[in-house]
Design a protein that fits this description.
170 residues; alpha+beta; 8 helices
């Protein structure tokens, strides 16, 4: 049974759908253009302070595996270095709700997709949000797992205080 409800809350477009007997929800992170500009100006130093490749450093230090657990751990190291709040549990909970842990997940049916901007990756981020909240030291690809997690956590930190505060489909 497919059920679709659309709700806008604080610039989060949230769409729920039930598929194959399991409920799934897609959370699309959408920045306001003014907010994105504010983040770049007000918080730019914190987000882009280092030219050092934090992802490579994190991978080298932790020996993190190329899987969901490893991507979350790499992202958490980068987040800590950049002052972005969030926990393993908060990230994993949101990832499992958004993509089921599939880094190649893409939403091709919601309003954003219909407008040509599908949400992508582990935390279902659209390109404008990724570009506005991308964290230096991560890949420049919205579908890169560590870059996707870190950008989404950066957005959630600016909008909600932390990815940990994003607890469910609204």
């Amino acid at each position: 049974m497919a059920m679709t409800n659309r709700i806008r809350l604080a610039r989060f477009a949230l769409t729920g759908i039930a598929t194959t007997g399991a409920a799934a929800a897609a959370l699309t992170l959408v920045p306001a253009s003014a907010q994105a500009a504010e983040v770049t100006q007000a918080h730019g130093a914190a987000v882009t302070a280092s030219s050092h490749d934090a992802r490579t450093a994190a991978q080298g230090k932790t020996g993190a595996a190329n899987n969901l657990d490893g991507w979350i751990k790499q992202s958490l190291q980068i987040m800590k270095a950049k002052g972005i709040p969030g926990s393993y549990d908060g990230l994993k909970r949101n990832i499992m709700r958004e993509s089921g842990g599939n880094p190649n997940a893409q939403n091709n049916w919601d309003v954003n997709a219909k407008q040509g901007t599908p949400s992508k990756g582990l935390l279902q981020v659209i390109d404008p949000t990724f570009n506005a909240y991308h964290v230096a030291g991560t890949a420049s690809s919205v579908t890169d797992p560590v870059a996707n997690i870190t950008a989404a956590a950066n957005y959630a930190a600016h909008r909600y205080g932390s990815i940990d505060n994003v607890n469910s489909a609204y």
